[in-house]
Structure formats: C-alpha cells, structure tokens
Amino acid sequence: MGSKKNLFIIIISALCLISLTQAQEYRPQFEYSEEEAKLYRMPIKQITPKDGIWTGHVIAYGHYIKPPYKFEIREDTFLFVNNVQIYPTLISKVSIAWEEELEKRALETYKRSGVYMDRVEYLFDLARSVYREITLNKSRSAAIDSLYSIFKNDTLLKKILAEITITPIGESDATLCLDLHLPGYGGPDNIPAPVMTTFYLNPPEPPFLMPKTEEERIALAKEWVEKLVKEYEEGLKRGEILEVSSFRRIPCTYGSGRRILQMVKILRSSQNFEEKCLKLKQLHVVDEKEILYNYTSKEWPTLEDLKQWEDK
Question: Is 260 found in the same domain as 121?
C-alpha cells in the first residue's frame, strides 16, 4: 500500500504542477515585488575559459553565461559549465516553496482520492489477468470489450469516471486511459486527471535494472551525465540555447540563437515588469521571473553582439 501511495503522490504532484501552471496562465500575477525577488535571486560565480564552444547560448538560473562554453564533470555525477553547476540543478528559495506547495496539494488530494485510486489499482490488476486470458482464448477485441465492461460498470469508479479510452497497439497489446474527476484536483477549468496503463499479452522486460550497489549507482549516474554533456555540446554547436532553471530538474537545449536577440530586446526595453513578463512568456522561457529578477545589463550581451543571429 505504501508504494502505491507514493506512486500516486508522484502522479498527483505532476498533475498539480500542470494545474498550477494553468492557474498561473489563467490569472497571471506579474507585479514587481522586492520580497519575491529575494526568493528568485540565484547568485552564481561563472568563469570564462580560454577555449571551448563559441556557438549557441547558455542561460543558467536567469543569468547569461558568457562563451566559450566548457563542460566539466566533478565527483562523477555533478555537471558544470563555466564553473556553474547545471546538473543536478540548483534549487532557489522560490522553487523550494513551489515544490512544497505541490507536495501539500498532492497529499490533500490523496486524502480525498486515496480510496478511488486504491480501487483503480485493484481494477488494473484484475483487468491485466482478464486481458491476457481472453486475448489468448478468444481475441484482442473481445478482451478490450471485457475491459470496457470492468471499468464502466464498477460502482465506485462510476462516481469519478469522466471518460475511458482503450486503444490497440502493436499486434496484441492495448493502452487504457481513464479521465478521472478526482476530489480535490482540477485546474481553472476542472480538467480531469488522466491515468494510463498498458495491457500486455507478454509483458516486456524492464528497460533497465536498478543498481544493487553504490558502485553500480555511481557508474549509472556517471554514464547519464556523460550523455547529457554530449547532448548539450551538440546543441550548442548547432547554435541552440541551453536553458538551466531551478524549476526544471534537467536542463534542455532548444530553439535558435535568434530567441536570445528577442529576449535581449525585451530585457533592455522600457516596458514595465508585467509587460516584460508577458513578452518572455510568449517566447516560452522556462520561468520569466527567474530571468527578470536575476537580470543585469552587464551580464547579457549587447544587441550589436547578437546581430549575427538576426537572419537565422
């Protein structure tokens, strides 16, 4: 039961994150606050190496990192670029508060919805054996019909079930999606929470085995970080942006250098705080406030330095 509860809380945390994001978009609050700024500010100590990658751009915790870019793995599992730790990402005060709010909402939702999710888990276990038996003895279509009957006719599940979809995949498997109106969950539009699972005729092998020893764990983590370095280096060489945020566990490369030109124009404009927030959100930055509250004109390149990106 404990593992199921933890899994459910993880799922609900992710759903609450979506809900909070939607709520923020639904009722945006973009007033400048010095008290809020203290929560967002992330001091860093970047250095500029003599050699490295000159193309692309790196934004870390709202700061522009000056090229060339050089990655360094420390203690096997920590990744730095120009002396700034980017993986695992550093956590700001506001991101800690954000995660605490997510966990609080997840626990509150679990208290209201735990009995329903326990029932869903029970039905999943039942449906897996039913699906395999009927598919082997009759057909997949007959098995899918039985699954619909199991979930649609369950008295407890009926109270929260908004929609059920079962889709055949491959030659013999099927994916089920339940849209549930869970008590205590819902964004501004009361969007149902999706819960998905796949029914396999022959369950696949686990994608990877969990490490059994500390040495195996470190080796696996080191391999992962080395893959990240390769991905980030290739992205920067293509002229992409590497964005590191305290709100995102793993940094990502995206877009083109021209987006930096647009960001600089916004940051250096005479627009007020709210207008700049809205403009940066239109560029789909991870968190516009992290950039605005950490912005210093000396740190970011000038428009003249970025003219090379105007036509790209």
Answer: no
Would you put residue 61 in left (φ > 0), alpha (ψ -120 to 50) or beta? left
119 and 192 inside one domain: yes
Whether residues 85 and 224 fall in one domain: yes
User: pLDDT for 39-71, tens place per residue?
Assistant: 999 999 999 999 999 999 999 999 999 999 999
Number of domains in the chain: 2
**In the chain, how long is the greatest CA-to-CA distance?**
71
Range of the domain at 169: 114-199
Is 40 part of any domain? Answer: no
Residue that is written with structure tokens 């933890």 in the block: 6
Helices and strands (H, E) in the chain, number of each type: 9, 10
CB 241 within 8 A of CB 67: no
Distance CA 180, CA 121 (A): 13
CA-to-CA distance for 37 and 52, rounded, in angstroms?
33
Residues whose CB falls within 8 Å of the CB of residue 164, separated by 6 or more in sequence, listed in order? 148, 151, 152, 176, 177, 178, 179
Q: Which of 81-85, 167-171, 204-208 has the lowest mean pLDDT?
A: 204-208
The closest of 294, 298, 242 to 44, measured between CA atoms, is 294
The Cα 60–Cα 58 span in angstroms is 6
Report helix angle 258-267 to 273-282, nearest 10.
170
- For the chain, the distance separating the N- and C-terminal CA atoms, rounded to the nearest angstrom, is 54
Q: Pick the closest to residue 147 from 126, 171, 163 (CA basis).
A: 126
Cα distances (angstroms) measured from residue 262 to each of 13, 252, 291, 310: 33, 19, 14, 9
Cβ–Cβ under 8 Å, residues 153 and 127? no
